[in-house]
Each structure stands twice: as C-alpha cells, then as structure tokens.
C-alpha cells in the first residue's frame, strides 16, 4: 500500500510544461480564458481549446469541467472555478475545497493517474495563500484516502511564497 503522503508532491514550475495525464486550470466562470494560469494554459493549448470551452457554457464556482489538452503535454485539462476572496465569510473555504474535490472526482471518472493542480484562487482571486494551501492539502489527502485514482497528485507552485505555504501545509497534515 502506497502511503497517502507519497502520492502528493509539491513542485515548483510552470504547469503547462508538465507531463501528467491532466492539469487543472484555475479558470473563471465563463471558461473562455483570462490571465494567470488560465491565460498560460490557453496560450499553450491553442485555439481549439477555446472552441471546446465555448461549448461548455461556463462553470459555477466550486465546480469543474473537463476538456482535451490539445497542444499541452497533458491529455486532459480540468477547468475549475475558485472563489473570489471576500473576507472569508462567504463560503470561500468550502468552495475552494469543492474545487479540489470535484476536480479529483472528474479525474477518477476519466481514469486519470497523474494530475497537477495550481494554487487555485491565490492569484487574481486573492485567497490568502497559507489558508488556501491548508485546504488544498487536506482536501486532496481526504480524497486519496478513499480512492486509488488519481495515483499521484502534484501541487504546482509558481512563486516561493506559494511553495513555502504548500510545503508547510503538507508537513502539517502529514506530521513530517
Ligand atoms: N503554472 C503554475 N502556476 C501558475 C502559473 C503557471 N503557468 N501561472 C500562474 N500561476 P491565478 P486565480 C499561479 O491568478 O487566483 C484568471 O484571469 C499563480 O502564481 O492564475 O484562481 C482566470 O481567468 C497563483 O499562485 O488564478 C480568473 O479570472 C495561482 O497560479 C482568475 O484569474 C493562481 O493564480 C482566477 O484567479
């Protein structure tokens, strides 16, 4: 039996370059592209991604939808819409947890073995990075406890602060 902590890895880098079965996009509710990681994914995947996204008719906050990966190394893109931080009293924590859970449910449904998440909502949507890291690691750990798929989850950080927060959250959850 592989330990849950061995199925989660924090890595620094650009999510669009990762050779995983699926990458998760921190999208907005239109699913028609934007800045940050969303912009990077759309640029790298190409115009056909936008065409497929137009057919999805958007996505609610806390939900997730899947498309092909087109020119990405990843076969699939799971688009999820994180909450905009509004001070913490508007259900932001549970909506963020839902993004991770719904993305992982889709991954399981599509027999995805390896998946990479960006730090959802911690950029343009202003969710406090440390708090978001705790939610990400505990929600993923909870899901993996009950599921064999995905086998491996990468938490991708783009800057040092996010890396530090994710590593600390990982240590906190797994007491390493
Ligand atoms: N690889 C990995 N992580 C990245 C990359 C990358 N290439 N680029 C940025 N990040 P954000 P949000 C990190 O703003 O807060 C968009 O316009 C970034 O450092 O991309 O959920 C959408 O269309 C940060 O830690 O997403 C929405 O309108 C994290 O990804 C809105 O932004 C998330 O930052 C969503 O905002």
Automatic annotation (TrEMBL):
Name of one Pfam family that matches: Macro
A GO MF term: deacetylase activity
SMART domains, A to Z: A1pp (SM00506)
PROSITE patterns assigned: MACRO
Chain segments annotated as coiled-coil in the UniProt record: none
Taxonomic superkingdom: Archaea
Gene3D superfamilies: Leucine Aminopeptidase, subunit E, domain 1 (3.40.220.10)
Ranges where the Macro domain occurs: 1-174
InterPro entries to which the protein is assigned, alphabetical: Macro_dom, Macro_dom-like
PANTHER family associated with the record: GANGLIOSIDE INDUCED DIFFERENTIATION ASSOCIATED PROTEIN 2-RELATED, MACRO DOMAIN-CONTAINING PROTEIN
Protein name: RNase III inhibitor
Species name: Methanosarcina vacuolata Z-761
